[in-house]
Amino acid sequence: MTASEAPGRAGEVTVPWNLVVPEADVYLVGYGMRLPNDFTLEALAVLKRCTRVFGIPPIHAPDFGLPAMENLFLRYAPDKDRQRTYQEWLDTVLDAAAQQPPVALATYGSAMVGALVSHRVLAEAPGRGLTVHVTGGTSSLDGIWADLNIEPFYGLEIWEATLFVRQKIEPNTRANLMLPQAPLFGVHHGPDLTAGITMETSSTIAALRDHLLRFYPPSHPVRYVQTTSGTQLAGPSIETLPLAELDHPGSHTMSTLFVPRRTVHDDLDFPGRA
């Protein structure tokens, strides 16, 4: 415990800015999409007190007193099974936490959105006698709500694109549909977040387009949305195109595909799937 910390209530520690943060062996930290704008006080306090911080990807922010992060991306290799890589990430974090807690796993956005290793940490840490605390962060979804002026409470579905197609999901066309990282169609993590992760590759999202065409007319406007991230706050990138042209090349691999709800006019013009 550093000089800036003092004992708090049982299982908690008082940190600068009069915060009280639960003590844990592992902290799952999201540092947001716009750096440093999205840093939270809790994220800064937690990262400062950790003995090791593992970044996916790491960030460099010494002006905020943050320690150097260890780059888990270095464990990737072109000919290496991704399931093995993710298991190594998990073991690295949990082994470090068992040896010299607390440690942190830090990532862009929210640690609980699109970060399956974080879910595996939550699932497996208790079995190793380790405690976990999640520090929230601003995810890409928050940016999309603003970029497209969406109120998610008024009807929204979110699916991983490959799972959406392979399980033949029928979307509720009265709700907006979001498919995060849709240009990575074919990269599949598996529906069970606690199970092994498998990944496959595909050079086209034509199968996604064809599946969507069962429920939406070819002219239905869809949008690729890339929210602001990093230190360049240039604003979002939004590309609108008809569903029939979904598989054209050039879209950013980290874009989210937004499929608006169908309107009464759509229903009159589109006879529906066969």
TrEMBL record:
Highest taxon, organism lineage: Bacteria
Organism for this UniProt entry: Gandjariella thermophila
Entries under InterPro entries matching the protein: 4pyrrol_Mease, 4pyrrol_Methylase_sf, 4pyrrole_Mease_sub1
Domain named Tetrapyrrole methylase: residues: 26-226
Pfam families listed in its UniProt record: TP_methylase
Molecular function, one GO term: methyltransferase activity
Name of the protein this chain belongs to: Tetrapyrrole methylase domain-containing protein
